[in-house]
Design a protein that fits this description.
The protein is an alpha/beta fold. The protein has a single domain, classed as 3-Layer(aba) Sandwich (Rossmann fold). Helices cover 42% and strands 10% of the residues. Strands 2-1-3-4 form a four-stranded parallel beta sheet, with helices on both faces. α3 links the parallel β3 and β4. α4 runs parallel beside α6. It is globular, with a radius of gyration of 16 Å.
Amino acid sequence: MTSILVVCTGNICRSPIAEGLLRDALTARFGAEAPTVSSAGTWGVEGSGATAEAVTAASERGTDITAHRAHRLATGSTADIDLVIAMAGEHRVALTDEHGAGDRAFTLKELVRLLESLPPVSPGAGPDSLADRVSQAAGARRAGFTGNPLDEDVADPLGLPLQSYRAIAWELDEWIARLVDGLFGAADVPAASEG
């Protein structure tokens, strides 16, 4: 089964929201065949719950992260992961330099832009197309596609009011919808029936 890891700093704000939203989007698309999604922090306190604001902001977008418990990224823990999504450039650097994720590590925004620069996937592609799309995105990056390096990070809302968490959750929801389409093709939309 394919797997995706989402990484931020403490694994209590951004990555739990992104993990929940991505898991829900993939489950809606693929059911039991959906890739597994998990999250971790480059500097997390093992076992901490998501912040109350993150739980609320995710809940308002239809995602339940109340059971989330933080994990600290361990050395070598990305070896069996097919795709590693970083919330910020600093996390991507740590993933490639310290955790061996290499060409499988991208910031969320970087990956979406790379995927959108490639020919689209045929509608209805399955979870097994993930490795090919990640490889194609890595190839586009090596070939010089830079996307928008001034807008790679998802801001860290830690310590900010609930409204900031809501903005981050909205932003993550939008980028994740684009990510899923970029990885697996646009979802089949049933034709509207004529009345």
